[in-house]
Amino acid sequence: MKFGHFDDAAKEYVITSPKTPLPWINYLGCEDFFSLVSNTCGGYSFYKDAKLLRLTRYRYNNIPYDSNGHYYYIKDGDTIWNPGWMPAKTELDSYQCRHGLGYSVFEGSKNQLSAELTMFVPMGNTCEINKLTLTNHGSEHKEISVFSYVEFCLWNAMDDMTNFQRNFSTGEVEIHGSALYHKTEYRERRNHYAVYAVNTQLAGFDTDRESFLGAYGENSAPEVVINGTSKNSVASGWSPIGSHHIKVSLAPGESKSFVFVLGYVENPVAEKWDGPAENGCINRKPAEELLKRFDTTEKADAALAELKEYWNNLLNHFTVSSSEEKLDRMVNIWHQYQCMVTFNMSRSASYFESGIGRGMGFRDSCQDLLGFVHLIPDRARQRILDIASTQFVDGSAYHQYQPLTKKGNADIGSGFNDDPLWLIAGTAAYIKETGDYSILDEITPYDNDESKSTDFMEHLRRSFNYTRTHLGPHGLPLIGRADWNDCLNLNCFSEEPGESFQTFGPSEGPNAESVFIAGMFVKYGKDYVEICKHKGLEEEAKEAEEAIVSMEKTVLDAGWDGEWFLRAYDHYKQKIGSKECDDGKIFIEPQGFCVMAEIGLKEGNCLQAMQSVEKYLDTKYGIVLLQPPYHKYHVELGEISSYPPGYKENAGIFCHNNPWISIAETVVGRGDRAWQVYTRTCPAYIEDISEIHRTEPYVYSQMIAGKDAPNFGEAKNSWLTGTAAWTFLDVSQYILGIRPDYDGLVIDPCIPSTLSGFTAKRDFRGVTYHIQVKNPNGVQKGVKVLTVDGAIADGNMIPFDPSKKEVTVEVIMG
C-alpha cells in the first residue's frame, strides 16, 4: 500500500494522505540553522546544536503522534483547519504534502478555500521561512482569520524538559510591531534570542501558552482560535509561545500571500550593542536586518529558487541513467540527499534521536564521510580534522562529541576499539576522492588540547598502532567496551565462570577479542600502507604490511568456524558466532568485513561465507544480523540479548551492514546476489509495502524487524543512519563500479545479469567523466574492454589527468 508517489522531475516525494503509518519527515537547512518538519507540519528548529540551541519545543513519544510543530490555523466561519491537517485534524477536501530537497510544501483546501504553505531554510541565513498563500476558489467573498503558532523551547532542550522549578519563572518576550521576540535567558548575557515575525500588520498576538490554548487547553482547539480573537498576552515566566493573528479578506478568485520568519539572532560583540539594551531589552537591529531580507513574497521566492539551484548543482556531481527507474531515482536524488542530511546531523536529531544525548559520533561521522565526500570535499576535510581532535594520545578516542563545542563527550568516554580504524577509513576516502595529501601535514590536537598536537599523519599512525598493539590471547584485536555492535559487550566477567558477572573498563585487562575489528584492520590497514607509501615511509609501510599479513593468517586460523567467520571470543576464550553456540551461531558483521578485506579469497573462504549468509541469514526484507536469535538474557554478552528476538541487534535486519554483504558479493563476483541484497532494503523498491515498512519510502532506516519478530518487516530509526553512506558506497562504487582510487578512477561494475548497461556522469577532482557501460552478454562482473577518449586502456583504472576537463569512457563487460 502506498501513501504517495515520487515526482522525479520535481525531485519531490508527494504524500497524498496525512495519515501515514508514522510521521514522514523532511530536513530543512544545510548550513547552521535546521528544522525537522513532518507531513503534518510537526517538528522543531535549532541552531547548530539540537540540544543546546533549540528554538522550538518538541515532545517525543507523544499522544497523539507528532503534535508539536509550526502550525497555521485557518478560521473560516465556524470551520477551523490547518493546511497540514494537524493539529485540528479537520477533514480536508484535499491534502498534499510535497517533500523536496531542503523544502516542504503543504497544500490543503476546505470549503472552496485553499492554503499553500511553503517551508524552507534559506541559504546563508539563520531562519526558517514559511510562505502562506490563501486563495478563494468560491463565488462569494470570504472574511477569514489566520493564527500562527510555535511553542518556544528554553534553548537547552534537556534543561527545558527537566528543570521546571527554574524554568517556570524564566519566560520573557518582547513585542515590536509584527515581530515577537523570545528573549528568555537573554539577560544572562547568552547573547542570542529568537524572533518570529510576519510581513503584515496584526489584528492581535499571543506569547503566553495558557492564554492562547486556554487553561487545560490543547493545541487541537486553542481557545483563542475558537473565539477568533487574540488576547495580546505577554508571557512572564511560564511558557512563551509565538502566535500572530491576521485578518484576511478575499474576493472570489483572489489570492494573498504572507511571509513568516522564525529566526535565530545573536549580537557579535555584546559589549558594543548599538541598540536599546537598557532594562533588559534586546538589541533588535540584527533581527530587523534579518527580517528585511524576506519581507516580500518576491524575496522569499528568490531565496527558494536559490536553495533549489544549490541542491541541483550539488547532486549533479554523480548521476546515472539506466533501464532501472528506481535505481536512477535513488542514486540521483534521494540517496545523495540523505547522505548530506546525515552529514549535517550525524545521529543527533531525528524523530528517533531526540537531539539531546548522542551528538556527533566518532565512528558514525567517519563512516558518513564515505557517502558525501564527493559532494563537499572541503567540508569533509574539516569534519575529519574535527573528529581527529577528539582522539587521545594513545590512538583511542572519545566515542562522541558535541557539534557546537566540538568537545568529546566525557559521559560516554572511550573504549570502543573499532573507533581508531574508522579514522583511517574516512581519511582514505577523502584522499582517494581529492588527491589532497596535505591533510596529513595539518597540526591537529589530541583531546582538543592544543599543547598535545602532532601532524595528522601521526594521528593515523596511532590509530593503526592502537589496534596492532591491543591484541588478545588468539592474536585478534581486543574488543574493548564494544566494536561496531555496541550491544555486544563481551568484557562482562567474574573471576570464575558461574559467579555473578561484573563489567570492567577496557583498560582493566579484559581479554575479549573481535574478528570484526580484525577484518577492519586488514581492510583499512591496506589503505594505511598506501598512505605511508605516498608519504615516502617505505619502512613503515613494510612493517604495516607484515602486521596485516599476520592478522590475515590469524583470522583464518582462529577466526574461521568451518562455514563462516566467527564473531568474537569472550573473556574466557569462548566462541561467539559459532556452530558450537546454541543461539547466535552466525553474525553478519565479520562475514561482510572479512570478505571485503579479501581474507581467504583465494582459499574459498569468502565465497563460502557469502553462501552461509544467504543460507542462514537471508529474508525477503533483508539480511538479519544474527541467527538464531537469543531467546533468553545472557548477562555475559551484554545488551544484545536484552532485545526481544527479531529487534535491533538481536536478529533484527540492521540495514547498516546489509551493504557490507552486497559489497562483499561484488568481491566474489556475484552481481545478481549483490543486486538482490541492495534492492531488498532500498526505499524506492519497497515503497509498495509502506503499510508494513511504515517509515518514509524515500530514505533508508537503520533497522527493520527480523523474521523472528511479530512485526516482521517494520522499520524504525529512519534518516540518520550509516546505512545511507554505506549503501551509496555500495551502489555507486561497487555495483555500478565507479570507484575513486589514489591515482585515478577505477571502473569495475558488478551488476545483475539482467541489466544491459547504463550511463553515468561523475565529477572527479575537477574533471567530468562521461561513462557508458555496455553488458551485451549479460555477465555479472568483468571488464573486457575499457576505452578512454577513444583509446583502449590497459586495465580498468583511468589515471587522473588534471589537464583534461572532460573524459569520455566506454566499458564493454565480458
Automatic annotation (TrEMBL):
<dbReference type="InterPro" id="IPR052047">
    <property type="entry name" value="GH94_Enzymes"/>
</dbReference>
<dbReference type="InterPro" id="IPR033432">
    <property type="entry name" value="GH94_catalytic"/>
</dbReference>
<dbReference type="InterPro" id="IPR012341">
    <property type="entry name" value="6hp_glycosidase-like_sf"/>
</dbReference>
<dbReference type="Pfam" id="PF17167">
    <property type="entry name" value="Glyco_hydro_94"/>
</dbReference>
<dbReference type="Pfam" id="PF06165">
    <property type="entry name" value="GH94_b-supersand"/>
</dbReference>
<feature type="domain" description="Glycosyl hydrolase 94 supersandwich">
    <location>
        <begin position="11"/>
        <end position="295"/>
    </location>
</feature>
<dbReference type="InterPro" id="IPR011013">
    <property type="entry name" value="Gal_mutarotase_sf_dom"/>
</dbReference>
<keyword id="KW-0328">Glycosyltransferase</keyword>
<dbReference type="InterPro" id="IPR010383">
    <property type="entry name" value="Glyco_hydrolase_94_b-supersand"/>
</dbReference>
<protein>
    <submittedName>
        <fullName>Glycosyl transferase</fullName>
    </submittedName>
</protein>
<keyword id="KW-0808">Transferase</keyword>
<dbReference type="InterPro" id="IPR037825">
    <property type="entry name" value="GH94N_CBP"/>
</dbReference>
<dbReference type="InterPro" id="IPR037018">
    <property type="entry name" value="GH65_N"/>
</dbReference>
<feature type="domain" description="Glycosyl hydrolase 94 catalytic">
    <location>
        <begin position="310"/>
        <end position="737"/>
    </location>
</feature>
<dbReference type="GO" id="GO:0016740">
    <property type="term" value="F:transferase activity"/>
</dbReference>
<dbReference type="InterPro" id="IPR008928">
    <property type="entry name" value="6-hairpin_glycosidase_sf"/>
</dbReference>
